[in-house]
Design a protein that fits this description.
TPP-bd_CS; alpha/beta; Rossmann fold; acetolactate synthase activity; Thiamin_PyroP_enz_cen_dom; 22 strands; TPP_enzyme_TPP-bd
Length: 618
């Protein structure tokens, strides 16, 4: 006879999650972030309390930012471990939808356990219930369907027997990895069921490493052997696969320069001789010149996003594309020759197939010129009384940190500037740029520090993103999670203002506070605000003070917020080519075809010429 144990459905879920293990002997789901409310407090809340000694619960300030912290943890762990988030019915659940989209776009694991309506429908419409007039099965949680890799509604306790393993199977699958959503009806959470004891036996989740198809491998190897000037575009899949060392060896052995995407940056340390820097819109002159002149472009673990490819204008007309990717959907983009497989295993097999093949010697001088340009952008300003540029801020932070530093960011000007100018050690870069979600930064820094406690986490955030979501500072203070926030204040959305005025030919409007419809220009005391949540907060008058404060922050066990005013000016990462030609590439942002202003009409004519060279293959 099958032995059973009588538990509520919520108790069974938490107990099961507590024994799902990694190959290294750690819990795969590290714990659950929770804000309790109507829809999860009675069932899931009680269950988390019952198992609090074996499965931790953490309280945050906002459901979206709790999920951001969980996503950053998973990214720091290279998808080997993840976290869960529970929310109440209604607004608590829909707060998480943005984070689910972020995890989906970035191919990162996240378990979302969202409170739902009553399965019995006895009290319908229950408080906060969203009703569809034509479909009685719909709830607010159906918003998760397009932004989840696995979705299930738990309307019976026994559904967990299949739903939970399916959810983790998706989360641990390197090809289909992404958020899993369990919409957990609130009455079912509290309902008892006789679960098989065997269901709660510890289980180890292992990482699959698919080898490439022999035919695909042979075709790609032949294409590379025939190429004289190949270039590699390395994406986040390189890092998630743990293929960093293999990529470095592959590039050196076959003499192929490497350009990096936002997700792939720091797969190779900046000092690696084959690292030619960032690719595309916010790319280096060395990397973009190599890509434009390449006869073969080899993508490794990249989706070939528009920033990476200069909106499909970066690669030369005659260049062939190869895409090494764990998922066939991504491997076939841009009409590339697909090579489907794990990045590490595939690069090893490909290198063996290439034998002693070596490409033409790449232009090392171009790489050195670019690095000198980086040093110039990041140099200490002579006039310490003037507001620094973002590049000068980056330089000050770089000088104040060591090899263990990780620069992280998500939105605004800083992602482009950091991609171009930050010079990391291997693993020293964490950027959420698949969704480029404002508000990820502070919560993401907390999750990153939890996932990589040995690293010195530096969070770059603009005043715009800080104002959008900053409350997890209080959580980090309460939990004594130290990281450094460098808050650059340029009085508005400087990045989008540049795109509006320089990139699209528009007039300054509604981005910088000075161009907004307000009665009084704001004077926000960010130091006082951060200090009110318990962080150590200070304002740096110049880059010298910034360096000193960044060094001092390393001795604290709470977050440090350093505010510095910066000048809002044209800079890398805006999608605008500079006259110096040192960086940047075209970014396709639609320009109005009809306008009363000559400046706008002139910009449209330029735009037509820029998009003419775009590759149209999917």
């Amino acid at each position: 006879m099958t032995k059973t144990v009588r538990l509520t459905a919520a108790q069974a879920m938490v107990r099961w999650l507590s024994v799902q293990m990694t190959e290294e002997g750690e819990r795969y789901i590290d714990g659950m972030w929770a804000i309790f409310g109507h829809g999860n407090v009675a069932g899931i809340g009680e269950a988390l309390h019952a198992y609090r000694d074996v499965f931790p619960t953490w309280r945050g300030q906002n459901e979206q930012t709790m999920a951001h912290a969980a996503i950053a943890f998973a990214k720091a762990q290279k998808r080997r471990r993840a976290m869960a988030v529970t929310s109440s019915i209604g607004p608590g659940s829909t707060n998480v939808v943005t984070a689910a989209a972020l995890a989906h776009v970035n191919r990162l694991p996240l378990l979302i356990v969202a409170g739902d309506v009553f399965a019995t429908r006895r009290p319908d419409p229950v408080l906060q219930q969203v009703e569809d007039f034509d479909d009685g099965t719909v709830s607010a949680n159906d918003c998760f369907r397009p932004v989840s890799r696995y979705f299930d509604r738990i309307t019976r306790p026994e559904h967990l027997l299949s739903a939970l393993p399916r959810a983790l199977r998706v989360m641990t699958d390197p090809a289909n990895c992404g958020p899993a959503v369990l919409a957990f009806c609130q009455d079912v959470q509290a309902e008892a069921y006789d679960f098989p004891e065997a269901f709660f036996a510890p289980r180890v989740w292992r990482t699959r490493r698919p080898a490439p198809d022999a035919g695909e491998l042979a075709r790609v190897a032949a294409m590379i052997r025939a190429a004289k000037r190949p270039v590699i575009i390395s994406g986040g899949g390189t890092i998630y696969s743990g293929a960093e060392e293999v990529l470095g060896d592959f590039a050196s052995r076959h003499r192929i320069p490497v350009a990096e995407t936002q997700a792939g940056k720091s797969g190779l340390a900046q000092g690696h001789p084959m690292n030619f820097g960032a690719s595309g819109v916010d790319g280096s002159a060395a990397a973009n010149t190599a890509s434009q002149g390449a006869d073969l472009v080899i993508g490794v673990g990249t989706r070939f996003q528009d920033f990476t490819t200069g909106s499909r204008t970066l690669f030369g007309e005659g260049a062939q594309l190869v895409s090494i990717n764990i998922h066939g959907y991504d491997a076939a983009k841009h009409g590339a020759e697909s090579l489907v497989g794990d990045a590490k295993v595939t690069l090893e097999a490909l290198s063996a197939a290439l034998g002693d093949y070596r490409a033409e010697t790449p232009d090392a001088g171009a790489r050195e010129d670019w690095l000198r340009a980086v040093d110039a952008h990041c140099a200490r300003p002579d006039d310490q009384a003037a507001k620094p540029t973002d590049g000068q801020v980056i330089g000050a932070v770089q000088r104040a940190t060591g090899a263990d530093a990780v620069a992280m960011c998500a939105a605004g000007t800083m992602p482009g500037a950091l991609k171009l100018l930050w010079q990391p050690s291997q693993g020293g870069y964490h950027m959420e740029y698949g969704y480029s979600c404002m508000g990820y930064e502070v919560a993401g820094a907390m999750g990153l520090k939890l996932g990589a406690p040995e690293r010195d986490v530096i969070c770059f955030v603009g005043d715009g993103s800080y104002m959008l979501a900053n409350s997890e500072l209080a959580t980090a203070v309460m939990r004594r999670i130290p990281f450094t926030v460098v808050l650059t204040d340029n009085r508005g959305y400087g990045c989008i203002n540049r795109l509006q005025t320089l990139g699209c030919g528009g007039e300054p409007f509604n981005n910088m506070y000075v161009d907004c419809n307000v009665e009084v220009q704001p004077e926000i005391d960010y130091v006082m605000h951060a200090a009110s949540m318990g962080a150590h907060a200070v304002k740096a008058a110049n880059t010298d003070q910034l360096e000193a404060e960044v060094k001092a922050a390393r001795s604290r066990n709470i977050p440090t917020v350093i505010v510095i005013e910066t000048v809002a000016k044209d800079f890398p990462g805006t999608g605008i080519e500079t006259s110096a030609g040192e960086h940047g590439f075209f970014w396709d942002v639609a320009v109005p075809q009809v306008s009363e202003r000559q400046k706008q009409r002139d910009r449209f004519e330029e735009y037509l010429g820029q998009i003419a060279s775009a590759r149209l293959l999917n």
